[in-house]
Amino acid sequence: MNTNRSNNRFKLEHWKKIAAGIALYDMLAVNAAYFFALLLRFDFRYSLIETKYVDAWEHFAPVYAVLCVAVFIMTGMYKSIWRFAGLNELYRILAVSLFMSALHVGITLLFYERMPISYYAVGAILQLALVLSIRFSYRVVLSISNRSGKRSHDRIMLIGAGSAGQMILRDVNGNREGGKVVCIIDDNSNKWDRYIDGVRVVGGRESILENVKKYKVNKIFLAIPSASMAQRRDVLHICNETGCEIKNLPGMYQLFTGQVTVKALKDVSIEDLLGRDPIRPDLEEVFRFINGKTVMVTGGGGSIGSELCRQIAGHSPKQLIIFDIYENNAYDIQLELKDKYPDLDLVVLIGSVRDSRKMYQVFHDYRPDIVYHAAAHKHVPLMEDSPCEAIKNNAIGTYKTAYAAMMHGCQRFVLISTDKAVNPTNIMGASKRLCEMIIQSFDAKIKAGKADEIPQLYMHRGKENADKAGNGEVFKNIKTEFVAVRFGNVLGSNGSVVPIFKRQIEKGGPVTVTHPDIIRYFMTVPEAVSLVMLAGTYAHGGEIFVLDMGSPVKIDTLARNLIRLSGLKPDVDIKIEYTGLRPGEKLYEEKLMAEEGLKTTENKLIHIGCPIPFDTDQFLGQLSDLIEIAYRNDERIRTFVEHLVPTYHPTYNGQKVLPDPVVPDTEPVIEEDGTVLAR
To answer: Is the pTM of this model over 0.70?
Structure first.
């Protein structure tokens, strides 16, 4: 027998002991209130009180005590946590006390004796006062203790004198370790020079720097959940100059759910300083498109891929297929989705988009309706050192995946591209531009009813012959729509500059920036994924979707802001070193090539680039040579890519690269397993 469990069953919890004590107090207090009222009526001379009144009080006292405790129990007055008592508890006590006072009048008149009017009035008031006092005395004692006891030395400036700010202020005041709010900032001039819980509203945002010095502030709490991103950015930029530790209430959700406490405050992230309202597309349309369909995400374990999987999984696909070559990432997202969506039909497959046999097998077995192609090599410096790998994985991998999708009834194929594909100076950007051209070529051929003219390149001989019957029937009903989505830099993604800067700051510096003038466009992972999803619904085939990412951000400014957010000073506590542009790196990235132009969509921040015309037949005909060069691992591949991508101008540390010309071999290329690659 488990004696501990038996003992716990009969163990009286601490709060129940307190409740029992308060109940005993209530029994005495409610009757003492009315007896005191009786004494008051007869000038505190007991001998003058008529016997009938004393008898009535004595006989009714035990009955009234029991009635009060019973009603208090039924209304939950003994279950409140009185250290957090507020208006709700006050209203409840008022209502119950009025009810009991009315009950007291009725019962004494009907069953005992008509008492003096002052007895009822004064007794009701005293009863309310005594019942309230015991319950709110704990808060008073706690407040006095906090004020007189040893508190944290943190001096806090609170920004926001609204509901959220008031909640934060009270939470700080009720927590001895939370420091002390010494001043409040609010842009509403009507609140200036007035007080909230004894703390003065000293002015608007323009007075932040002045009052930080005046009140010796070392922490700033932002409680402005309804502010726009631009407004929040402006305030944060001012706060960032103070050197104070900054905490931020993320948004309106905490206010609606009542979770406005010091613990709900988060460290200010670099995203808060970008100053752009987040993209909030109507995802209902997106998820109606996904609902009940089989969806495949290549590179599903990566930053973008995994977020795609999360959003897709939450909106009832028929089946979700995660395809990735890196098993650790795939395993992580598999565990996460199984835990959150136990009823989801989830398939996780390990493999490479470069393996044509594997891709054909996957599409043959699962027949996905929608494919989000996120698998790619993305790191510019690494790809500059291994240019053939960029072409094999990005361009050729996309070709194989797109061909397999086309031949197995896929409805939509969405390629994730990058702004580095615009006028590329590095092989990674050029490889992604090749991917876009491949997608545009596929779409053009399908719309022209010439899908049979798309070469079945890079296939293992005899294994995936698309037209096994030789009559071309398999190409007649192909309706796959191919689109591309072009992104900027994604905050928080694998290899993003922000995590690198944070690690360097944690080590004490230096923070390395390639160039003081280098700029980039940034977006968050959820925004990037929303755009990918929208491409699936807006698409008619052949488009390149582009996000208006607002104003570009200087990487040097980004680094300095991160240092300040860590409570340190740039070039004083943490040094910034400029290392020079890396191979293939540009000072700035463009969102669109000048000749592409723009068309608008339903979302003002999402545009469609008009495709740059090129000779599709010539392009497709040259891909076989590209494959052979890549699989020979010929480092001079950049020259051949220049012929395919006219906007590609390779550079190294800002200098034009002029490699020797490369000519495809006439001999076939043979893979390690002995398979001959078709030309």
So the answer is: no
